[in-house]
Design a protein that fits this description.
alpha/beta; Rossmann fold; eight-stranded mixed beta sheet; 8 strands
Length: 275
């Protein structure tokens, strides 16, 4: 791992694969560092001939952090960070893979900087160019219910327990939850973070200006991946995204929630590489 200066901040990055291979940028979700992209997944993508780049958003991991509750940026700045990172790495175009908030960032890059997007993979996300409330929740589907109080951020064990509980809430009830793996991943993220309390800044930052274009105008190979049991953005959001983006393919994963578990990788990795 190393730090790169981009858009006026320091972003911690990690690269896996041959530097001469086709670049693939992994964009994590809200409050998630590069640790959200498991090394085994990155290695499988790299084995398919990709230079896999993952990075810490501001206020996650070892990138620039701000005082908890006082983010000095907007969601739009996070999009500009990703574009500036590609520039800093001298990457002209990359395959963009974004999950949740990262999927919104990937959409904004493809719309406002189309020359940067070689392909677009959107995982467990919704529209970036219009209010997501326009997509109704299907009958019988409820929004994510997670009402755990914020932990004492100075208490490592409490923070790990909180992160595991959140992952459990996002996971599909149709598949056994791997608590041991979730706890291990949470502990790694906590121990590597400069200030783990800063991740909550993503919840209070302003969204900033949206993209200038509409998804219907995109001209880029696109794949929409969505869990059939996503409690945050039900599958109607993925279906609507795939309908809006010309030529997009939709891959719905059974027994998957708002997540990308190892059990799904045998389908997900070939689909991403096929773009």
């Amino acid at each position: 791992m190393r730090k790169v200066r981009a858009n006026g901040v320091e972003l911690c990055i990690d690269e896996i694969g041959d530097p001469g291979d086709r670049p693939l940028l992994l964009i994590a979700g809200s409050g998630s560092s590069l640790d959200g992209w498991r090394p085994e997944l990155c290695e499988r993508l790299a084995a398919g001939g990709r230079r896999v780049i993952r990075y810490d958003h501001r206020d996650t991991g070892q990138s620039t952090t701000y005082s908890p509750g006082q983010p000095g940026y907007s969601g739009r700045d996070l999009t500009d960070d990703a574009v500036a990172l590609l520039e800093a790495l001298e990457v002209e175009r990359a395959d963009l893979v974004g999950i949740s908030m990262g999927g919104g960032i990937a959409q904004e890059i493809a719309l406002d900087h189309p020359e940067r997007a070689a392909s677009l993979t959107l995982v467990s996300t919704t529209f970036a160019d219009r209010p997501y409330q326009e997509i109704p929740f299907p009958d019988g589907v409820e929004a994510l219910a997670f009402d755990e109080p914020a932990p004492d951020w100075s208490d490592r064990d409490a923070v790990v327990a909180y992160m595991v509980a959140f992952e459990r809430a996002l996971a599909s009830p149709a598949r056994p939850f791997d608590e041991a793996a979730s706890r291990e991943a949470a502990a790694e993220a906590v121990e590597r973070a400069t200030d783990i309390a800063a991740i909550a800044n993503h919840d209070v930052m302003s969204h900033g200006d949206g993209p200038s274009g509409r998804l219907e105008e995109l001209d880029v190979p696109a794949l929409v991946i969505h869990g059939a049991d996503d409690p945050m953005f039900p599958t109607g959001h993925g279906e609507a995204l795939a309908t809006a983006i010309p030529g997009a393919r939709l891959l719905v994963l059974d027994a998957v929630g708002h997540e990308l578990p190892p059990e799904s990788w045998d389908r997900v990795v070939p689909a991403i590489l096929a773009l």
